[in-house]
Design brief:
The protein starts with a strand and ends with a strand. A 9-stranded mixed β-sheet has the order 1-16-15-2-3-4-5-6-7, with helices on one face. Helices cover about 20% and strands about 25% of the residues. α1 crosses α3 and α3 runs parallel beside α4. The radius of gyration is 19 Å and the shape is globular. β11, α5 and β12 form a beta-alpha-beta unit. By secondary structure, the chain is of the alpha/beta class.
Length: about 325
């Protein structure tokens, strides 16, 4: 199914994969995120790579497109559902430059990514606001976040604004309200035709003021089935109230945005990556368990969490007594 959603609303049957222009693949990695960007001359950029169990999916997806090299690789922040598949990508493909924000995580997932980077003899360049990426000549790629330094790893997410011709895209990772406010205060241009809705459509992101500044025509939500209750009804309503056309991996599979520099075309490809079981409410891969709220901990039947338990996070331990969500 291919829809024209730019200046004209007429459908087109042409194959966007064979057309010259900019393509952004929002890969269906279930509850996680991954964006593959292919430029007009074929240069590539990969932002995140889903969770650990999506390593094969990521490698297969890139191979299917006959990709040999990732010119720019970006891990937006250390959460497993964003960087879990990066080590497999690094191990299987030639890699140009690597960007990650200056934040670490005490997880095997993060350690595996760093090990893969070191084994390839690569270096990490800090992802932060103001960094201009040297990529395709006809595009402009600027990091607009993180503006500051935050304790919350989500707020440290690398945020990119990409323009090609008259079209623009804002890719937000899991950036939340404080990062959004700081981006607004920095007075950087945030307007974008396509917005990657922050933090999988969580209430923690996509504040009203941020959405009004971006003014997107289209909102892309990278989310799996029945995970965390994402996207929330509040965010969906906020998007719809502003007239944003919504695409979601859990409903649409892989979603590919194509720009010829003037208008945008969207292609949806159904996939089987999204989980269908309600048991997938926690981001669990081996020893990596990450909860974003005590409500999630309690829903999983894991409360209280003690220091050293899988999923324990000082952010959930309000009185810092070593017991969270008591």
């Amino acid at each position: 199914m291919i829809l024209m959603i730019g200046c004209s609303a007429q459908p087109t049957s042409s194959n966007i994969e064979t057309k010259a222009g900019l393509k952004i693949h929002f890969i269906d990695v279930g509850q996680g995120a991954s964006q593959l960007i292919i430029g007009p001359t074929g240069q590539t950029m990969l932002i995140d790579a889903g969770n650990n169990d999506k390593e094969k999916l990521m490698v297969d997806y890139l191979n299917k497109l006959h990709i040999k090299k990732i010119d720019i690789l970006i891990g937006t922040h250390p959460d497993a559902d964003h960087i879990g598949g990066l080590d497999a990508v690094i191990n299987h493909f030639d890699i140009g430059k690597v960007y990650m924000p200056k934040v670490q995580a005490n997880t095997k997932t993060f350690e595996d990514v760093l090990t893969a980077i070191q084994k390839k003899g690569l270096k990490v360049t800090t992802a932060k606001a103001g960094v201009q990426l040297d990529w395709e000549a006809d595009t402009t790629v600027t990091m607009v976040g993180p503006v500051g330094t935050y304790e919350d790893t989500n707020e440290m997410s690398a945020v990119l604004r990409l323009t090609y011709g008259d079209t623009s895209f804002l890719l937000t990772g899991d950036a939340e309200a404080q990062s959004e406010k700081d981006m607004l205060d920095s007075k950087v241009n945030l307007q974008a035709d396509v917005l990657l809705v922050g933090h999988h459509g969580s209430n923690s992101s996509t504040s009203k003021s941020f959405l009004e500044a971006v003014k997107p025509k289209y909102g892309m939500i990278q989310v799996g089935v029945n995970n965390y209750g994402h996207p929330t009804a509040q965010i969906l309503k906020r998007l719809k109230d502003q007239g944003v056309q919504i695409y979601r991996n859990d409903l649409d599979g892989h979603v590919i945005f194509y720009s010829d520099g003037k208008q945008i075309t969207v292609k949806q490809e159904k996939s089987s990556a999204s989980p269908t079981s309600k048991s997938s409410n926690s981001k669990q891969q081996g020893s990596d368990v990450i909860y974003n709220s005590c409500a999630e901990v309690k829903a999983a039947g894991k409360a209280p969490l003690r220091k050293g338990d899988p999923g324990y996070n000082t952010k959930l331990d309000g009185d810092q007594d070593g017991i969270a969500c008591e």
